[in-house]
Design goal:
The chain is an alpha+beta fold and 252 residues long. The protein is built from eleven helices and five strands; from the N terminus they run H-H-H-H-E-E-H-E-H-H-H-H-H-E-E-H. The longest helix is centred in the first third of the chain and has 28 residues.
Length: 252
């Protein structure tokens, strides 16, 4: 019967090209459908690699679709991502592409990312870095971010970077006492910083970053935006370097 010979070819066609070019099962009789189902089962048992091939193709298509959706999110939120007017900017401020990092001081992978980001900036001297305070791991995270942001407001960008680095290395529980110890050790005005931690300015900055992360569908840290590309999770420096090269190539 034709179905016996057509089933394997039709099955492969339907898995790879989609149902639009597959056999119309609605046009088959009940007995034909039963026979076709048996032939499909037999074919898959004899050729299980077809299933793996179909899964791989589906995963590739999903990855392409997700990357395209992420690029649309980056484009729609570009101003807030790259030029919000409040986030700390480092690296090469005049760089041709920007790396945005959403981070949490209590995040182990954020701490692992520190040397990788440093290596990236050292290897590629034309990347601008923007740090987004995104505390999502409880009250200790919020307290640390409030302290860092308050430092920026009170003592400026250089002091913020010092506190930022110290908090990423800090292994204890953040409390007012331990945070004061950090700022005292850096020669900063601890009283002024602590007084500013609950200010409307600090609250507004953290709230705006959370709203941006929600629009970007970011739920974990670290999360990066490198040029037009969204990087969801920790990546080593060599991979980010390759992505930076790809972004530049796309920009022409």
């Amino acid at each position: 019967m034709i179905l016996r010979h057509a089933a394997p070819a039709l099955l492969g066609l339907s898995l790879i090209t989609g149902p639009a070019q597959a056999l119309d099962l609605n046009a088959l009789s009940a007995s034909e459908k039963e026979e076709f189902g048996a032939q499909v089962r037999e074919y898959l048992l004899e050729n299980p690699e077809v299933i793996i091939e179909a899964i791989n193709i589906l995963e590739q298509r999903n990855a392409v679709a997700e990357a395209a959706a992420d690029q649309e999110l980056v484009a729609a939120n570009a101003d807030e991502l790259f030029n919000d007017g409040y986030s700390w900017v480092g690296g090469n401020p005049e760089g041709d592409i920007t790396l945005v990092e959403f981070m949490d001081y209590r995040c182990g992978y954020c701490r692992r990312a520190v040397p990788e980001v440093a290596d990236l900036l050292a290897e590629d001297g034309n990347i601008r870095l923007v740090i987004k305070e995104f505390p999502i791991l409880g009250e200790a995270s919020v307290l640390s971010s409030r302290f860092a942001v308050a430092t920026k407001h009170v003592a400026g960008d250089d002091a913020y970077k010092q506190v930022h680095d110290a908090l990423l290395e800090f292994g204890g529980e953040p409390t007012e006492v331990s945070l004061r110890r950090i700022s005292d050790g850096l020669g900063l005005d601890s009283d002024a910083i602590v007084a500013a931690m609950d200010s409307d300015q600090v609250t507004d900055e953290i709230t705006r970053t959370r709203a941006l992360a929600q629009r970007m569908q970011i739920s974990g840290t670290p999360s990066f935006v490198l040029g037009t590309e969204m990087l969801r999770g920790f990546l080593p420096a060599d991979q980010m370097l390759q992505i930076a090269k790809g972004v530049r190539a796309e920009q022409g």
